[in-house]
Amino acid sequence: xxxxxxxxxxxxxxxxxxxxxxxxxxxxxxxxxxxxxxxxxxxxxxxxxxxxxxxxxxxxxxxxxxxxxxxxxxxxxxxxxxxxxxxxxxxxxxxxxxxxxxxxxxxxxxxxxxxxxxxxxxxxxxxxxxxxxxxxxxxxxxxxxxxxxxxxxxxxxxxxxxxxxxxxxxxxxxxxxxxxxxxxxxxxxxxxxxxxxxxxxxxxxxxxxxxxxxxxxxxxxxxxxxxxxxxxxxxxxxxxxxxxxxxxxxxxxxxxxxxxxxxxxxx
Length: 267
Ligand SMILES: [Zn+2]
Description:
Shape: globular
CATH superfamily of the largest domain: Ribonuclease Z/Hydroxyacylglutathione hydrolase-like
Bound molecules: zinc ion
Largest sheet: 7 strands, mixed
Radius of gyration: 21 Å
């Protein structure tokens, strides 16, 4: 009797060991402005436009210190508020830069991004899809309607056409980060392909709440997360105005307002 009980316990123990561990959910963290972190189910860390030390983030130093492992840094364009802390993070972590060929070259030439972390495998351009991290992540380069210069000590230089990314995570969400952009009708072509839309609503330099709501109407994501507002006084669009505009279109259920520092889990 005791022997059969022991056998049963051993069998149960072995079964538990052999069972595949349940994959962790993908997560999305907002640092304020246009800066996001995505962690894949296998634990790879992606940053998009990582201006972690933006004025709306009260925990910038802690957040930067905590970024010890970063695999990929995505930059939508060369403006200072999007390059952000990417060079410091890249030097610390060895992260590779995902962006257009022009932006990659400008980052090395003018911003001291480590050249060995610029790779043709992580370069692309609009309409192209690249596969990264052994196929766990695929990235479609999407254009944006915005500026493409980069500030240097000698004035602005060309840094490629600005864009956005459709980042598809295996076992996780399909995330459309619009970058800085106006509304454009080709967003409609992404309809049905987006789970989480991270979109600018701040007005003045990008879409404001009205045009952002129109963009949501075109794309119809499962979740629309407003960004690029309130970082400094010039960005006057608010989530409340965005909500009101979504409501006029019967889309308010899609709004998912994140707090700075908040993390979403995606199963
Ligand atoms: Zn910009």
